[in-house]
Amino acid sequence: MKHILLIILFALVNIGFGQKFGKEQSDCAGSVVFYDSITGAINIPKGHGYKLEIKGHDIRNPYFFTKEHNTLWIKLIFTKDAKFEFFIRPDLPDEDYDFSIFKINGDNYCDSIATNKILPVRSNICRKKPEEKSVTGLKDGYDNYFAAAGGSPSFSAPLLVFAGEEYYLIIDGPYGSIGSFQFKTVYSETIAEKRLDIIEIPKVKEPPPKIHISAVDQTGAKIENLNIEVKETRSTDSVYRDSIGDWIIENVKRLTRYRFTLTSKGFEQETFNYFHKIIGDSSLVFTLKKLTIGSKLQFEHISFLGDKATILPSSQGDLIKLTSFLMENPHIMVEIGGHVNGKGRNKRRYKELSKERAKAIVDYLVNKNINPNQLTYVGYGNSKIIYKKALTETQSKANRRVEAIVTSIE
After folding, report:
1. Measured at the alpha carbon of residue 126, what is the angle toward residues 228 and 242, in degrees to the nearest 5?
2. What is the extent of the structural domain holding 376?
3. Are both 245 and 305 inside the same structural domain?
4. For the segment 306-330, what is each residue's pLDDT rounded down to a tens digit?
């Protein structure tokens, strides 16, 4: 006989009789196990356990909360087919609970969740609604599988489950949990003759997968006015800045490589490589270093004809990055230093060639409307050589380099 599984959470009159869980149950591996039903009062332990398994997600991500705050992991094992609904009704209407549900498929599933390799089958991250007693859960009549933070529905669509299936339910209280809540399970027979496994729940069209990109400083504070250059995008990728200043790459595909160059006023320019391994959204938060006097910017692909100061066309990408950096930071002065891959003592011709190369870069920048008062140049010859006995072309290139060093910050 098929059943409809209805899980309702009632507010506790006396939370002292509830089941108290600790730090171990705040981790996926230590999840508390229930078969078919969840009974008794449930409390949310303080903290995220021994391992922070969900983290680094954008606040608008509909699948995950930004990170674990105060979490309880529950493993649900079903022994019969059912339509899974539940309600989380907090003791206090001002409490806030978010949740995600994962269908377990294979071993080491907790690791898959922690490494963003899979997405939940249901979630609800909407903001608390005290006027509605902040109740949330899965409820018949809703067709959204997920709900992002903000004014999203308080409930998500029910979930069809079948005998033998297992799920992880993670519940998070972002502001802490003053009280607890209670699960009470009620079974009722399915009246409809139509088979449960062919009942169709209206599908919600999921948004195209995205990569959310933001940056913070070394204290963790968000960096505003971030600029980004993205290399190796596909023709179907859409790159844009959203309403709060974060960068979005939309329509991303799994197993795609990207190269990001991030620039912001007052910070060192950084380049990062990223390999998008998952199906669905990801949120990337990069850390930039603040500019200080002596900050050094090295460009690996600025190169010249042998024994000449003629800039090769292959240098164009790095020259664009340098130009962008200086435009973002008109309040600084930089020294353009030229270096050569010369052997032996620092000969006069080494110094002259490296100075000519540094001047060629300055001339290029001035031609791109960079204020010449921002720039000085010097030729170091081989006095600051990195590899005294370069054995590979890569090492030779590292010696034959151009560096921009911050000499003044207004």
Report:
1. 20
2. 296-409
3. no
4. 788 888 888 888 898 899 889 989 9
Strand-strand pairing, 71-77 and 32-35: parallel
Q: For residue 257, give both structure tokens.
A: 């490589």
How many domains does the structure of the chain reveal? 3
Residue 26 vs residues 7, 31, 68, 69, 344: alpha-carbon distances, Å: 21, 7, 9, 10, 62
Angle at 194 between CA 190 and CA 200, to 5 degrees: 100
Query: What CA–CA distance (Å, rounded) separates 12 from 92?
Result: 10
108 Cβ partners below 8 Å, 6+ apart? none
DSSP state of 11: P
pLDDT at 224: 86
């599933």: which residue's tokens? 109
| Positive or negative torsion for Cα 296, 298, 303, 307 | positive
Residue 407 — pLDDT band, cuts 50, 70, 90? very high
User: What's the chain's average pLDDT?
Assistant: 81
CB 18 within 8 A of CB 91: no
Task: Using alpha carbons, list the distances in angstroms from residue 297 to 95, 217, 270.
Answer: 48, 17, 9
Indicate whether 205 belongs to any domain. Answer: no
Structural element, H or E, at residue 221? none
Q: What is the dihedral of CA 168, 172, 177, 183, to 10 degrees?
A: -30
* Tokens read off for 172: 């998070």
Judgement on whether residues 103 and 141 belong to the same structural domain of the protein: yes
Residue 81, CA atoms < 13 Å, CB-side half-sphere: 9
With both helix axes pointing from N to C terminus, report the angle between 348-367 and 316-328 in degrees, rounded to the nearest 10. 60
Burial of 53 from C-beta contacts in 10 A (0-12 / 13-18 / 19+): buried
- Residue linked to tokens 């196990």: 33
CA distances from 158 to 72, 153, 253, 377 (A): 21, 13, 29, 67
CB 333 within 8 A of CB 376: yes
Alpha helices in 296-392 (DSSP H): 316-328, 348-367
Final residue belonging to a domain, choices 256, 287, 318: 287
Backbone torsions φ then ψ of 320, nearest 5 degrees? -65, -40
Pairing verdict, β 3-10 and 82-88: parallel
CA 255 centroid distance within chain: 16
